[in-house]
What we know:
By secondary structure, the chain is an alpha/beta fold. 47% of the residues lie in helices and 16% in strands. It has helices at 3-19, 21-24, 28-34, 39-47, 55-75, 79-98, 106-125, 173-180, 196-200, 209-222, 239-250, 268-273, 276-286, 291-297, 328-337, 358-373, 410-417; strands at residues 130-137, 140-147, 156-162, 186-191, 227-237, 254-260, 315-320, 342-347, 383-388, 394-396. The protein has a 10-stranded mixed sheet, with helices on both faces. Helix 10 (209-222) packs across helix 11 and helix 15 runs parallel beside helix 17. The chain starts with a helix and ends with a helix.
Amino acid sequence: xxxxxxxxxxxxxxxxxxxxxxxxxxxxxxxxxxxxxxxxxxxxxxxxxxxxxxxxxxxxxxxxxxxxxxxxxxxxxxxxxxxxxxxxxxxxxxxxxxxxxxxxxxxxxxxxxxxxxxxxxxxxxxxxxxxxxxxxxxxxxxxxxxxxxxxxxxxxxxxxxxxxxxxxxxxxxxxxxxxxxxxxxxxxxxxxxxxxxxxxxxxxxxxxxxxxxxxxxxxxxxxxxxxxxxxxxxxxxxxxxxxxxxxxxxxxxxxxxxxxxxxxxxxxxxxxxxxxxxxxxxxxxxxxxxxxxxxxxxxxxxxxxxxxxxxxxxxxxxxxxxxxxxxxxxxxxxxxxxxxxxxxxxxxxxxxxxxxxxxxxxxxxxxxxxxxxxxxxxxxxxxxxxxxxxxxxxxxxxxxxxxxxxxxxxxxxxxxxx
Length: 418
């Protein structure tokens, strides 16, 4: 645990007790619904929570209820009702295991085994269209779920669904089916180094191995007869927008990238100014217990800088105006450094979860990737910018907030000169 995290645990507990999850992540429920959390489950969980220590129990309790109900319906022959409940249980078991920050804790393993069981039953009830993937990677393993459209599929476009730092592959089951396989696309929801089963089995994240893991996943997708190897894109939120940017800059096989809430700033914001849980989590993911060594050896080297100038595929970035993990000025400065065909959307008054526009961005991101993989949106010099107002209007031609009164912050000006 970081020094700041240890000292501020009481403040986080008060926030949870007084304001629930929304006090920590405003509007996040909208995003979590896109990740398969039924709002009634979510409310039941947080009715049981008055401090951070209560989270594993609360998630496990409600996950167990959903799994029991799923088994009841499966026994009765109501297969799709059962499958839906298994999906709900899987994401909650995933939240329960995430809440335990000790890879060797037997409770974490037990929660993971329940999540795996729910996914196995879901896959069977969906006719084998959700399949577990385990790949060799640099002497260890990485884990994913393959999501296939119904019927015979050959040479279809495919998308890698990248999770944020506190997410797992199961979080994309709902989105994969709703936004991708229903439209004939293959989806692969992944866990990279430091996440989920990968971390539980000893694989930590370093500066560059996450993009190498994405390349390994591209290898796998390209080997499948269902997939067109020339049409593989990536949808990422939060840290996977960062990792996806690194992957797009280093592996030209990635044909499109849609990144929402991407952490593209200086990393002092996310690790020193935001809630201390973010830094605590990333230290766990990377295997550091020495905070000074973590800052010196990893954090100082993490900013993207000019690396994004090496991206060649079409790229879409979307971010909340008041994203608490990346200052808007830094996000726009990062965007200026991209030379590939690009698009930027800034959502007025939204925070990091983009919960107020979650349904829109998940659908728009999927449709944007589909068009990009089909050869659209790639014209040289493409630079499309929008400031999306909360009242439904959109200012086109600029992503800068209107209250800036046409002024340009220094960080953006400097990036344009680079």
